[in-house]
Inverse folding.
């Protein structure tokens, strides 16, 4: 008889084969590792709105005005909405003459695509290099006033915080693709004047003076890049600006040039206008094949679930990727569409304090961090808003985690399991299954579910066993380090 500690390190490992995740967690949904490595369910969600918005939500922003009233703004591909802190029904503040965007990305096709003589005459070809993106809003606040822009519409808008009024075009502002307000209170329009590489800004503290002169600080700069400007974020010490191929840092230097733009990273572009999060002096974002961070220098973030994310990612719909910072749990979240999906259907979360990753399967098209509100707020594909990290209800989904193989020694001995000694806060909060096989890629046999009570009688024999822990109660359960009572068997 021997008690084996099933002390699996926190977080998932999903790189390579399942056998390469031996002794690690391999798959998960709706769980996180927190507080020194114990596993627990993420918070659930409750519906905030009573009537749905029109269009697919592509950005959410929350803020507090000068009278301490909290606001939510949601941009869909076709409309713009605002909510006060107590409202359950959206107020449509879509600007007059607004040009509706595209709900989905599309790949260009035609008879003239490709080199002369390629394929057969009269056959249309798909050109995957000319994807027309889904329409995404960028939003920021200048004091209490929100500013918004969608590339496909190209105009800069602001709103006066009156739900009886629609947002209005900013007079004199250049057309562009994205907006960001710098720490020094300049409004940047990215991709301005029809130039995908041009940044243009109004005078400090102004949204009306866009003409450079001897007595003001309005100006513009064409960024030296092979890409197109995508988005910007305030960060300690300046403003980060992403293109689809590289990253630049804007530093305020006063007149005559006002801003200096330095390329701080190459071949590390962002995959969408919504794929970046900022945590103090650090930014993190999702590219086409890797995650990156900036805290003075750009670095690739080693991703323990790289194959699960980038090996199952619909890159045609990459423009829909959205991200938010879950500060309470030190997590950056990215929502993205799987390879077989047209719309977002999954998420990956990175705990930057504990350097752990988790995967989730649910659909949220846009999200805003807690701050102005107590909880993160997210939008679903039906046009409803939800408060997250509230209770433990998941719309019929169930939290779970599955491990990679667990073996005795080098795996050449059969283990004969007799008892499980669980380690949970309250016995019975989870159910446990054991998934066995003798060799990698062998067929699997499942034993369970068992509702743990110390000790719990189990009976199975195998060279490899995988642990499958499933939440059984709608509570904040914890799963620590269980032990398995096994008898080593033969090598046959």
């Amino acid at each position: 008889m021997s008690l084996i500690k099933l002390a699996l390190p926190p977080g998932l490992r999903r790189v390579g084969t399942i056998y390469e995740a031996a002794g690690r967690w391999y798959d998960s949904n709706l769980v996180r590792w927190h507080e020194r490595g114990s596993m627990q369910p993420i918070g659930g969600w409750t519906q905030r709105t009573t009537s749905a918005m029109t269009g697919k939500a592509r950005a959410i922003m929350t803020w507090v005005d000068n009278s301490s009233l909290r606001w939510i703004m949601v941009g869909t591909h076709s409309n713009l909405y605002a909510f006060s802190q107590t409202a359950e029904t959206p107020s449509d503040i879509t600007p007059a003459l607004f040009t509706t965007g595209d709900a989905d990305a599309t790949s260009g096709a035609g008879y003239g695509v490709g080199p002369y003589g390629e394929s057969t005459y009269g056959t249309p070809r798909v050109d995957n290099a000319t994807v027309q993106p889904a329409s995404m809003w960028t939003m920021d606040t200048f004091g209490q006033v929100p500013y918004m822009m969608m590339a496909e519409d190209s105009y800069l808008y602001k709103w006066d915080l009156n739900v009886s009024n629609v947002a209005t075009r900013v007079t004199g502002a250049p057309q562009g693709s994205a907006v960001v307000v710098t720490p020094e209170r300049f409004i940047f329009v990215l991709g301005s004047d029809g130039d995908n590489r041009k940044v243009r800004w109004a005078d400090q503290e102004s949204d009306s003076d866009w003409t450079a002169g001897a007595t003001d600080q309005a100006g513009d700069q064409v960024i030296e890049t092979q890409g197109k400007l995508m988005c910007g974020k305030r960060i300690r010490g300046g403003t980060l600006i992403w293109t689809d191929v590289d990253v630049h840092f804007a530093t305020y230097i006063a007149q005559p040039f006002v801003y200096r733009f330095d390329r701080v990273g190459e071949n590390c572009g962002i995959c969408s206008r919504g794929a970046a999060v900022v945590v103090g002096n650090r930014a993190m974002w999702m590219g086409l094949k890797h995650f990156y961070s900036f805290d003075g220098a750009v670095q690739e973030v080693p991703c323990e679930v790289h194959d699960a994310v980038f090996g199952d990612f619909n890159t045609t719909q990459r423009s829909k990727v959205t991200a938010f910072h879950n500060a309470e749990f030190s997590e950056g979240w990215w929502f993205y569409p799987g390879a077989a999906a047209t719309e977002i259907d999954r998420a990956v979360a990175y705990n930057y304090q504990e350097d752990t990753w988790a995967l989730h399967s649910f659909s949220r098209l846009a999200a805003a961090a807690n701050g102005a509100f107590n909880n993160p707020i997210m939008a679903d594909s039906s046009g409803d808003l939800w408060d997250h990290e509230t209770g433990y209800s998941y719309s019929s989904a169930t939290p779970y985690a599955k491990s990679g193989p667990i073996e005795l020694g080098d795996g050449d001995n059969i283990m004969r399991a007799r008892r499980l000694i669980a380690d949970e806060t309250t016995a019975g909060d989870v159910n446990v299954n054991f998934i066995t096989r003798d060799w990698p890629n062998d067929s699997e046999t499942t034993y369970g579910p068992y509702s743990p009570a110390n000790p719990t009688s189990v009976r199975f024999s195998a060279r490899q066993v995988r642990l499958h822990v499933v939440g059984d109660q709608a509570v904040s359960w914890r799963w620590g380090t269980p032990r398995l009572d096994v008898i080593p068997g033969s090598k046959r």
Summary: The longest strand covers residues 246-254. Residues 176 and 192 are 4 Å apart (CA to CA). The chain has a mean pLDDT of 93. The chain has one helix and 41 strands.
